[in-house]
Amino acid sequence: MPRAAVAQVGLRLSGVGGTDELAGWLVAREAPVGGDLVDPRMPERIGTRGLRNMAHESRLALAAAADADPGGPRDAAAVAWASSTAGLTEYATICTEASTLDPGLASPALGPASAFNIPAAMISIRLGLVGPNLTLTGGATAGLSAIAEAIRLIATGDATGVLAGGSAAVSPWRAPNGFIAAEGAACLALAPANHKGVHLRTRHRGALDEAALGATAGLVVATPDTGIAEALAKRLPYPVWHVERTLGDFGAAGGLIAAVCAVALCGETTRPVTILALAIEPRGNAVVLEVSSS
Questions:
Q1: What is the pTM of this model?
Q2: The Beta-ketoacyl synthase-like N-terminal domain covers which part of the protein (predicted)?
């Protein structure tokens, strides 16, 4: 199975300043840090032009991606993103304005912002990346599917590197499920596997097969189903951390957050270790990502 290396990590999460703090929250199993509005804290090199009219989630995504962007050739660098809320508020607003205002009075800035591919497209434009860009939507597995697509693009030579990320904003379209509706963004800058450091490999996609969860030091699971997470924690012989319980519900970005948590945990040890990231949909579809430090 093809692999990719993690070159950089970008984070914009409530109460979490870096991967070391993220690993600490998981291990301590403290109360969720999600639920608060997150400051995008845009890097200075991005500038301020056009940010005022940019949707909040798009600013979060751009800030995380800009922190993760390792530079290098731009002509074949891609973006694979996961979000279940991108463009929804802007789409609803532009529909309302178009039906209630006189022609021509609807804000022209809402048009591009209402596209569901806006995070990946906007990141590509602002960072000058010329490779493919796509935004995946759906449940928690979308985040790990974005990473799987990023690994595939690198393995096939269609991209020299990929910014694989996910973002979420508090939205009226996110149904309550017992967890805090968290917002934020995270991004992994992925490079070819010959780079040193933490490596990622897709281990399993499809119906959950617990045989794919063997031989590991721990599991980070993203799922809105508390029962599944608790059952895995009881059956498996190693630590299991639940993203939604510890950090909040990030929707489609949940699997991506799980992967970033696994990367953070790998960074906490000096010895080689493998930690799995697992995303499970309520109907049983699952993606398992292997995260290994060398």
A1: 0.91
A2: 45-181
Those residues with Cβ within 8 angstroms of residue 64's Cβ, 6 or more apart along the chain or in another chain: 10, 11, 12, 165, 167, 185, 186, 187
Same domain, 268 and 148: no
* d(C-alpha 294, C-alpha 80), whole Å: 25
Q: What is the pLDDT of residues 166-225, one digit of tens each?
A: 999 877 666 656 788 889 999 999 999 988 889 999 999 999 888 889 878 999 999 999
Which distant-in-sequence residues (6+ apart) come within 8 Å of 248 by Cβ? 14, 32, 33, 34, 35, 179, 180, 181, 182
Kindly tell me if the per-residue pLDDT of 136 is higher than 80: yes
Domain containing 163 equals: 3-192
Based on the fold, state whether residues 103 and 180 are members of the same structural domain: yes
CATH number at residue 95: 3.40.47.10
